[in-house]
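Quick one, tokens below. Sequence please?
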């Protein structure tokens, strides 16, 4: 049996992962994240299963290689946290989960949008204190307004279907136009026009060099003063300090963030008894029109089940010497 160590395993995820691999491999599940300090704990494990907030840079990968790791199976679609070229140089294979339920993320993006628009968090906070006033809770109908969708892959398309159901005008931006979104009535436009015309903007593009800080000070300046911004993709798509300054200036009606550029070492952890040393995140938390969740958009039974099933298949493919569409770096031949 292969020896596997999994990092960043959430309590709700652990029994599913253990059950899926029972009798197939020897699995060790750790809640701690993989980084320079924790990488030595992988010594002796042929396979490492990583989470989206693990840091697999060149230094970590060299430690893994020295400890005998030959395969990394990432339990997410995104892999911007892995130095793929260094893994290739070291002969370490890398696979990811190329697909899981797009509805999990799309539906959560709308949950954020609706909660921000209708001031649901503020409203429930008041009613818990038996304050039943409506002052400051007025939202807007979404029907007839314009939604801008940046990225119209599987998740962006699922988000667009819901927007179409609301009766919204659809604007899209992507390198490749999606025929299904076109059929729903989406008009593909230049990015600056989308930022300028949309009442609600949702991000569904991957984090690559060309999309890093896609929403920067210039883009934020183009947006309507009462626009709503939603990000359930990757934190690095938004220049967070620029967002803080935009909010300080009284711009934007609301912001919903499920991701944050510096979330590693914060999200998924209990920091309630500690001083928050990230000044930008702490400042974002002070705005009443900002709603932040801890990278939970994917976290449904359906999506997590698919992620684990695909991770198990990636492990089995490695052990059998096979590759698939999930393979980012083919592993070196097993001895």
């Amino acid at each position: 049996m292969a020896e596997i160590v999994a990092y960043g395993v959430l309590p709700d995820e652990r029994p599913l992962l253990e059950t899926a691999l029972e009798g197939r491999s020897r699995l060790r599940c750790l809640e701690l994240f993989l980084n320079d300090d924790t990488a030595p704990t992988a010594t002796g494990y042929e396979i490492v299963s990583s989470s989206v907030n693990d840091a697999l840079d060149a230094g970590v990968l060299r430690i893994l290689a020295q400890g005998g790791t030959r395969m990394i199976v990432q339990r997410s679609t995104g892999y911007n946290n892995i130095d793929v070229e260094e893994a290739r140089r070291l002969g370490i294979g890398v696979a990811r989960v190329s697909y899981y339920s797009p509805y999990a993320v799309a539906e959560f993006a709308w949950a954020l949008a609706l909660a921000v628009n209708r001031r649901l968090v503020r409203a429930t906070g008041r009613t818990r204190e038996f304050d039943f006033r409506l002052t400051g809770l007025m939202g807007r109908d979404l029907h007839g307004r314009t939604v801008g969708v940046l990225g119209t892959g599987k998740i962006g398309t699922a988000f667009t279907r819901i927007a179409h159901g609301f009766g919204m005008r659809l604007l899209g931006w992507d390198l490749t136009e999606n025929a299904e979104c076109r059929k729903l009535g989406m008009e593909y436009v230049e990015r600056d026009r989308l930022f300028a015309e949309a009442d609600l903007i949702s991000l569904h593009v991957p984090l690559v060099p060309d999309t890093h800080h896609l929403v920067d000070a210039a883009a934020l300046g183009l947006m309507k003063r009462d626009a709503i911004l939603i990000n359930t993709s990757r934190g690095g798509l938004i220049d967070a300090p620029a967002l803080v300054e935009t909010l300080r200036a009284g711009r934007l009606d609301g912001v919903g963030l499920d991701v944050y550029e510096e979330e590693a070492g914060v999200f998924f952890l209990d920091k309630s008894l500690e001083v928050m040393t990230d000044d930008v995140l702490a400042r974002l938390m002070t705005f009443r029109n900002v709603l932040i969740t801890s990278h939970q958009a994917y976290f449904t039974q359906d999506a997590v089940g698919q992620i684990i099933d695909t991770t198990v298949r990636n492990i089995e493919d490695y052990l059998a010497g096979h590759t698939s569409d999930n393979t980012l770096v083919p592993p070196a031949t097993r001895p």
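Residues 102-292 form a domain with the Rossmann fold fold (CATH 3.40.50.720). The chain has a mean pLDDT of 96.
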